[in-house]
Amino acid sequence: MRELLTNKWMWIPLATWLLVQIFKLIVEVFTAKGKKINFRRILGAGGMPSSHTACITALATSIGISEGFGSPVFALAVVFCFIVMYDAAGVRRAAGKQAAVLNKIIESDEDINVQEKLVELLGHTPLQVIVGAIVGIIIGFTFSMIWDL
């Protein structure tokens, strides 16, 4: 149990994800302009920056600092980063665009009966992914340095 509680390679990415999601919620609070605040947003996908990307780059950064940037495990983490970032900006973004089109079709056709709208905010723009990577590297580096003090 002690190993689980002191595993920085698990806690640094999770803390990064939580910080980014809280940041997104705070931004939504200040930009809501009288709208109801959606607290489910803290668990939702999409938005600036990409929390998926920040999480995985924080992991890769902490592994690189701890195990060395030439280690096989760092290489594995970097490849995993690229897969997550491709998915965020490619596959999930495309699925979100398709959901938007389907929602418009559903709204325009009275014969289609759907209980709830499809989620449109799934993926990220390339800029959101890049900013997520920068945030993840900064937080991963900072937390790794603090953890080793």
Task: Give a summary of the structure in a few sentences.
The chain has helices spanning 2-5, 8-31, 51-67, 72-108, 126-147.
Kindly describe this structure:
The protein has 149 residues and is mainly α. The chain has one domain. It is 70% helix and 0% strand. It contains 5 helices and no strands. The chain has helices at 2-5, 8-31, 51-67, 72-108, 126-147. Helix 2 runs antiparallel to helix 3.
Keywords:
149 residues; mainly alpha; elongated
Number of helices: 5
Residue ranges: pLDDT <50 for 5 or more in a row? none
Largest sheet: none
Output mean pLDDT: 81
**How many domain regions?**
1
Task: Characterize the overall form.
Answer: elongated
Which range does the strand content fall in? Answer: under 5%
> How many DSSP E strands?
0
Q: Helix/strand/pairing class, anyone?
A: mainly alpha
Q: End-to-end span in angstroms?
A: 22 Å
Instruction: State the order of secondary-structure elements, H for helix, E for strand.
Output: HHHHH
* Fraction in helix: 55-70%
Give Rg in angstroms. 18 Å
